[in-house]
Amino acid sequence: MCDTCGCNITHGNENFIKPGGKLHKTESGKEAITVLHSLLSENDHTAKHNRDHFDQHQVLSINLMSSPGAGKTALLEATIQQLDKDIKIAVIEGDLETENDAERIRQHGVEAIQISTGSACHLDAHMIHQALHSLDLSKFDIIFIENVGNLVCPASFDLGQHLNVTLLSVPEGDDKPAKYPVMFRKSDLVVISKSDLLPILDDFKPERATRYLHDIASTAPILQLSSKNNQGMPEWLDWINQQILSRKEHLLQHPVATQHHNHGNEHKHEHHHG
Amino acid sequence: MHELAICQSLISQVESIALEHHAKSISLIVIGIGPLSGVEAQLLKNAYPIASAGSVAENTELVIEYLPIKVKCNKCGCESDALPNKLICKQCGDWQTSLVSGDELLLMSVELEKDDIHKDSSTETSIH
What we know:
Oligomer: heterodimer
Largest interface: A-B, 51 and 56 residues
Strand content of chain A: 15-25%
CATH topology of chain A: Rossmann fold
CATH architecture of the domain at 3-68 and 101-114 in chain B: 2-Layer Sandwich
Mean pLDDT of chain A: 89
């Protein structure tokens, strides 16, 4: 999308609307409407709304994505235990069924909202918006969204997060970035999780994972991390602290509107704040 | 399969457009998909009859334009075609490139059939 005016005309599609282009002609008796809006504009609108909520409360939001079982919840548990206690955390958990992950988080004394998606393979901005109604954002500094374990679908849906972190666990193999480029290209940080298994599963070559990430033009830092033996945890915590500071600096330079809600024209829903 | 959710979003958008333009039906929907959008065109086509059933876009022809991946090299400035998992510069081989196009997921245009009483209204093409 164009950053200046928000239109969706790119080098890839501009030829369609130029005179003589496929979308320029109108058959007689019919009306052709050129739209060029994202197919997910409703979701994107709500995502922006969520981001405004986070920004108004100076809360950093991080979307954690990975395959099922890559260690997202374990990473969150280790983070809760080791992050500076002055930094207040809440977690939004997405799974098809069960409250298991939210329960694990709550056992550490941290507020967790479980979203059960039923058969949906991803979280979307509307689900996060609903979850935010149950969270008092003024109490928190950082919200982790643990997306549904899936390397495909979550990549297409903006939730209103500030940052995407994708976990690539050692047992999965080092070529996942080449197989799932859409998700890995959107990552602001790639965590090679379960790094304690590297000596055993030695066919996973971190340098090969790095090469595959470079092949998809990813400039995201890559961190080897084990929630089990704590390798990489100090660097992970440093990265989080740095991101909280960067977000605060960004908000100082680009203050958000102070009203609680900044509703656009198309935005119609009822809010029930507790 | 997130394509069904995306298809439902598409139907909701074209329904609004049809209502806004007093159309009685939609004869054609053109969408544009880049390979890096994360959406599979065939799955979207399969989901379309389910998502559109009972809507103003039921039985509408769905045309999918495939938009190419293009990257621009941050080093040499060259613009080149690329593959989804090989977004490197074709000219100098550097990996630090920026995506120019290829991640689009766009409703590009719709063709409306209008009620007789609204046929005189503007047929101006609007770009938002």
